[in-house]
Amino acid sequence: MLERFKVPIEDRVYVPLEKARSATEAVFKHAGLDDAGAKQCADVLITNDLRGVESHGISNQLRNYMRLYGEGKLNPRPDIKIVRETDTTALVDSDGALGIHVAPDAMRMAIAKARKHGTATVAVTKAGHLGGAGYHASLAAKENMIGQAMAGPGGTQTLPTVGAEPRFGTHPVAWAAPARNQPPFLFDIATTQVAGNKIQLARRVEADLEPAWIAGMDGEPILERVPVPETYYQLPFGGTRENSSHKGYGMMSMIDIMCNTMTGVGAGFLTGGGGQVFVATDIQAFIDLDEYFDWMDKFLEGLKNTKPAKGHDRVLYPGLSEWEETQERTKNGIPYHREVVEWFESYAAEIGVDVDLR
Amino acid sequence: MLERFKVPIEDRVYVPLEKARSATEAVFKHAGLDDAGAKQCADVLITNDLRGVESHGISNQLRNYMRLYGEGKLNPRPDIKIVRETDTTALVDSDGALGIHVAPDAMRMAIAKARKHGTATVAVTKAGHLGGAGYHASLAAKENMIGQAMAGPGGTQTLPTVGAEPRFGTHPVAWAAPARNQPPFLFDIATTQVAGNKIQLARRVEADLEPAWIAGMDGEPILERVPVPETYYQLPFGGTRENSSHKGYGMMSMIDIMCNTMTGVGAGFLTGGGGQVFVATDIQAFIDLDEYFDWMDKFLEGLKNTKPAKGHDRVLYPGLSEWEETQERTKNGIPYHREVVEWFESYAAEIGVDVDLR
After folding, report:
1. Which of A97, A176, A324, B103 could hold A138 in an S-S bridge, CB 3.0 to 4.6 Å?
2. What is the pLDDT of residue A33?
3. Among residues 39-68 of chain A, which lie with CB inside 8 Å of chain B?
């Protein structure tokens, strides 16, 4: 993550991993989830926080989720149904569950089918927020498969290239692949220039946005550095047409087609979307694992040993710095913004749940 | 394609579709391919030319291909072997064939497996140039599936984000999806800021490159508009880190892993790469085709009816302008640069093949 998005040192409260985890489980249970569901949801948020992906951890998400459960917009005890199924595919109706509640099981279903048949794709409908695509893709990597996860949310945020009306959300996608001696590969992005939640985060830490990160309400990309404005639209990655924003726009479109059109949900900008897709591909269907791991370690080593350009310390590969952050935070705790910890404590007190975060 | 890449009007020679096709088939046959192979190769190049993707048509590719056949670096009569196979996957050794020669059959194999089981992934090794990923992805769309195609070439062109040594080629990827009343969706890109062959094209038509399209040999992105320099590196899409080039870099990495590491070829920058992957996903495994087509037409209509930003005529969706170009060129011929037609005629004369392009 760019430096400017980090919580300023003076605002940090370091919360030990297991305290953060049990407090999060407790509030999910209070929202009505069963033990396994609460455990699963907490694990997604805490894993994101450990990786340093604050935009998809407790800070930005937990209060939204609790509000939506409170308003009855998320179903804590979903009746999950398989609508259609083949050897290698399934369409799953998640009955209004939170994405982080049902997506891991959907990926596990894809993994089981891929183990038997080689590759598999499971799609989920009527689900809430995916909570970042990376967690779910990684489940496949842990089983020695290539994992892909993506979600097609609504369409009120992001403009198509040269458009002046929004047609997409942040339409996240992730791919994960295992390694033997190197930290695993995890490529996990919003297909916008910047994750929607990072804009909230920038607002909280009073960071500027870069040129061509957002557009005005007339659709024109804002080409200066600016603080987060009151109203704005997001742009597909690339930002402007000259800078390949049609590639971000195309990725969003592909994600929307697979998540929403292929599943019968209907385009995000017409229906609010909510489809999610999980793909698992078994490496051993192609080559032996030993051979794969030999090459994978060489590939990742080669990337991180690339000579950096002037002014840069080192070259990263996707997932490397998040893995390093995970080691650091597992040991020393997760540096939440004090405002987040205060919210968590006061929310827990309000609902009568005991939490201990300090 | 940006206006500047088009062949200037005064340099255009319009060649009728069927003349271009039979001349191209003739030179492939002369290179040693059998009738079906020559027909297949010509169809890929001509389809790209019809779509207006000159970078992957006759202009930039045919003479390279002929040179490589001449030098014995491509095998015109490959002995294609299935190395490993499951219900839904295959690893295919293409025995040094040109990518456009073997990739369509690999995608057809994926389609047949997906028809039976829901989804399938076929990987090809030891193949030459893919000739653009879009053609192959479209084969699945024509069979009412979602198609994906990608290739992991060598690693001498493109820098990782903030790197000063190249690790990738242009690592193309495409997704295609069918529609009923609207022109089909076809998202077909290089994961660089600009397709490598477009830089050759820019050189030929003396067009400038945009800021952050390329980097100097020290790895620093060139942030001005410049004519094509003698030597340069390419950048992942996004261009600079601030502008999300890590997203292009991550896509390239994922493509390299699936095409080269998962297939045992080994990283493009270590081995020269050459792996290719084709994925077909049967829409009917998820929903009925009628329902899919209803939503798909609404999705594509919604995109193209988006109000454009100031200074723009209309919003396109991936594949739309290429489809329009195909209608136009099928009727009026393909506008090749006269230098290309002259090369084609003199090459054909040299090898003693009769061609009629005018």
Report:
1. A176
2. 98
3. none
**Tens-place pLDDT, residues A46-102:** 999 999 988 789 988 999 999 999 999 999 999 999 999 999 999 999 999 999 999
Buried b (16+ CB within 10 A) or exposed e, A183-205: bbbbbbbbbbbbbbbbbebbebe
Q: How far apart are CA A324 and CA A184, in angstroms?
A: 11
Contacts of B328 (CB under 8 A, 6+ apart): none
**Nearest CA distance, A35 vs chain B (angstrom):** 31
Residue B4 has pLDDT above 70, yes or no: no
> In which band, very low, low, confident or very high, does the pLDDT at A3 lie, cut at 50, 70 and 90?
low
Task: Kindly indicate the confidence band of residue B2, based on its pLDDT and cuts at 50, 70 and 90.
Answer: low
ipTM of the complex: 0.96
Q: Is residue A217 within 8 angstroms of chain B, CB to CB? A: no
Give the residue with greater pLDDT, A177 vs B208: A177
Place of tokens 């495994």: B285
The strand pair at B119-125 and B89-93 is best described as parallel
Mean pLDDT computed over every residue of chain B:
95
Give the ranges where A227-337 is alpha helix by DSSP (H): 245-256, 268-271, 289-304, 320-332
Strands A334-337 and B89-93: unpaired
B123 within 8 A of B276, measured Cβ to Cβ: yes
> Chain B interface, mutation test: which of A2, A251, A286, most B Cβ atoms within 10 Å?
A286
Tokens of A22: 């049990």
Alpha carbons B326 and B331: distance in angstroms, whole number = 8
| CA–CA distance, B27 with B351 (Å, rounded to integer) | 9
Confidence of residue B117 (pLDDT cuts 50, 70, 90): very high
Whether residues A281 and B121 touch (CB distance < 8 A) is answered with yes
C-alpha distances out from residue A348 to A24, A356, B128, Å? 10, 10, 61
Q: What is the mean pLDDT of residues A152-178?
A: 96
Task: Give the integer Cα–Cα distance in Å for A308 and A311.
Answer: 8
Burial of B177 (0-12, 13-18, 19+ CB in 10 A): buried
| Cα angle value B112/B115/B121 (rounded, 5°) | 60
Among A280, A257, A276, A268, residue whose Cα is nearest residue A94: A276
Contact A244 B193 (CB under 8 A): yes
Give burial (CB, 10 Å; 0-12/13-18/19+) of A254: buried
DSSP B219-240: S-B--S-BPPPSS-EE-BTTSS
Closest residue, chain A, to B159 (C-alpha): A306
Q: Do A308 and B251 touch (CB under 8 A)?
A: no
- pLDDT bucket at A127, cuts 50 / 70 / 90: very high
State phi, psi for B91 to the nearest 5 degrees.
Answer: -110, 120
Q: Which domains does chain B have, with CATH numbers?
A: 3-351 (3.30.1370.60)
